[in-house]
Write a structure and sequence with these properties.
single chain, mainly alpha, two-stranded antiparallel sheet, globular
């Protein structure tokens, strides 16, 4: 792990960033609602971690309130709880104190993920509340990770190759090392995130690293760019690219791309929350109508053509649109 990271500076910055964002928002609002959480500031990874941390806390509190008189493993109860949680997710209402605490924690996690992803994943797995970590938890976390996700994807591929359903905490270092050995991807360019964070509270590499480390980090994007030029892969996918591209799938890809029979039933709570609030401006009704139409068409080409003409304001390079298109392809595969 990277000992040159100034964790105290990172923690202090997270507090100042959270205070700035919260002060700006709550100057005109008493509460922050579901539709605002994903859009309150422009760094999407921070907003996603806010949602994740909120759900994690909510799950812990729900587990503590479970009565010993009922069978919560019953399929009927599970389905009813899922419906209930979906409904609640669209009625989030947080005061400044609660939101500020979630935002501060989420900001620190995002900074770790950007500047020292190994440390982020090591801490994430080490702090799991049981000695054995189920694969389902890793898959759940991956849905929230949009920066440097390849490390966790590699871990899931390694686990799939070993036919494991869970891992022990003693395996964390070995899995992280194996993941880093097999990755061909460079860490994401930190400069773009420094610029985004500095739009709220000034941030520099000098604060996070020492001067020598700063110079090393600034070389990384140029090296990554050379690799991209060698491979002729500087192009960001358009909506049509997402439909037409044909890649060799990994084991984890096969699972992620498996055919689904019903889009709404296949959605996790966080996916539904993200789609409704980011793509449909918080309108549950618009989301429902769109999914119903997608379900009614005969193939993915027709569905994507409908979206292209219906939602001309969508950013086709965004993670949300990409994930939504992937679901459509799985539905009509």
């Amino acid at each position: 792990m990277d000992s040159s990271i100034r964790r105290d500076v990172m923690k202090d910055y997270s507090k100042r960033f959270a205070n700035k964002v919260a002060d700006d928002f709550f100057a005109d609002h008493e509460k922050i609602a579901s539709k605002d959480v994903m859009n309150v500031q422009e760094i999407k990874q921070v907003n996603l971690f806010v949602v994740k941390n909120l759900y994690d806390q909510w799950q812990r509190e729900s587990d503590e309130l479970r009565s010993p008189f009922f069978d919560y493993s019953s399929p009927e109860i599970k389905e009813a709880m899922q419906v209930f949680m979906n409904k609640l997710s669209h009625h989030i209402s947080l005061n400044r104190k609660t939101y500020g605490e979630l935002l501060e924690k989420s900001t620190e996690e995002t900074l770790l993920l950007i500047f020292t992803p190994y440390d982020f994943y090591f801490r994430l797995l080490s702090e799991y509340d049981k000695d054995e970590i189920p694969v389902s938890y890793l898959s759940y976390v991956l849905k929230y990770v949009k920066i440097n996700p390849h490390i966790l994807r590699n871990i899931l591929e390694i686990i799939a190759e070993r036919n494991l359903e869970k891992i022990e905490k003693g395996q964390i270092n070995e899995l992280l090392d194996k993941s880093l050995e097999r990755t061909a991807e460079s860490p994401e360019d930190v400069e773009q995130y420094i610029e985004k964070f500095s739009g709220y509270v000034s941030l520099s590499l000098e604060e996070i690293y020492g001067e020598d480390k700063k110079k090393e980090i600034r070389k990384a994007p140029d090296q990554a760019e050379e690799k991209k030029k060698e491979k002729n892969t500087g192009h960001k996918p358009t909506l049509n690219d997402l439909l037409q591209k044909d890649e060799v799938p990994t084991l984890a890809d096969i699972h992620r791309r498996a055919k689904i029979e019903d889009i709404k039933k296949s959605l996790s709570i966080n996916q539904r929350f993200m789609f409704v609030n980011t793509l449909f401006n918080g309108s549950e009704e618009a989301f429902e109508r769109t999914v119903e139409h997608i379900e009614s068409v005969s193939n993915s080409e027709e569905a994507i053509s409908f979206l292209t003409h219906k939602f001309t304001n969508w950013d086709h390079d965004s993670e949300e649109v990409s994930e939504f298109i992937q679901l459509i392809r799985r539905r009509h595969s």
